[in-house]
Automatic annotation (TrEMBL):
Gene3D superfamilies assigned to the protein according to its UniProt record, in alphabetical order: Oxo-4-hydroxy-4-carboxy-5-ureidoimidazoline decarboxylase
Coiled-coil segments: none
Keyword Lyase: yes
Keywords, in A-Z order: Decarboxylase, Lyase, Purine metabolism
Annotated protein name in UniProt: 2-oxo-4-hydroxy-4-carboxy-5-ureidoimidazoline decarboxylase
Superkingdom as given in the UniProt entry: Bacteria
Organism: Streptomonospora arabica
Molecular-function annotations in GO: 2-oxo-4-hydroxy-4-carboxy-5-ureidoimidazoline decarboxylase activity
């Protein structure tokens, strides 16, 4: 690639992201959210002059997800407590994000599993939460509180949690390699 001053940056991660081919970009950012439109819209906004510009764009685009896109993205997430299998980057990220839950006391995890089954029956989807740095007790409290949501409110909450997970993963992409 020719030397392009817009791609030069003291931030090696940002420079790497700006230099990715379209296919590489879609693959990297597809692991962050799993919505093709989101990754493609983000790709078209390159080059980014800063991390905050990239994160702001990722956030703005994620706020426009349709219910169908959210549902499709949910299919790529394991249930809390069911660690993602495989060595794929997404599985590795998911295992790390749920590490606080895994370290929780068994009794809390058992109550969580029962509440999670109730949630799935009520809302007909997995319970999704940005679990990074949260304990099993915190996740149980969040799940219990969300059971009081109506379906429309819960759809908005799930979309917000998906967006938070995606933004954390964008930071990981920037920090990788």
């Amino acid at each position: 690639m020719p030397d392009d001053p817009t791609l030069r940056s003291a931030d090696a991660g940002l420079a790497r992201v700006n230099a990715l081919s379209p296919e590489e970009f879609r693959a990297e950012f597809g692991r962050c959210l799993g919505v093709e439109r989101w990754a493609e819209e983000l790709r078209r906004r390159r080059p980014f002059s800063s991390r905050s510009e990239l994160l702001d764009a990722a956030d703005r685009i994620a706020r426009t997800l349709t219910d169908e896109e959210v549902a499709a993205a949910l299919e790529r997430h394991p249930r809390i407590g069911e660690h993602a299998r495989g060595a794929r980057t997404e599985a590795e990220w998911s295992r790390g994000e749920q590490s606080g839950f895994s370290a929780g006391e068994a009794g809390v995890r058992e109550r969580f599993a029962a509440a999670q089954a109730d949630y799935e029956r009520r809302f007909d989807r997995i319970y999704l939460v940005c679990a990074a740095h949260r304990s099993a007790r915190e996740l149980l409290d969040d799940l219990t509180a969300r059971m009081g949501n109506d379906a429309v409110t819960e759809e908005r909450v799930v979309a917000g949690e998906l967006r938070r997970i995606a933004l954390q993963r964008v930071e990981r992409v920037l920090d990788s390699r």
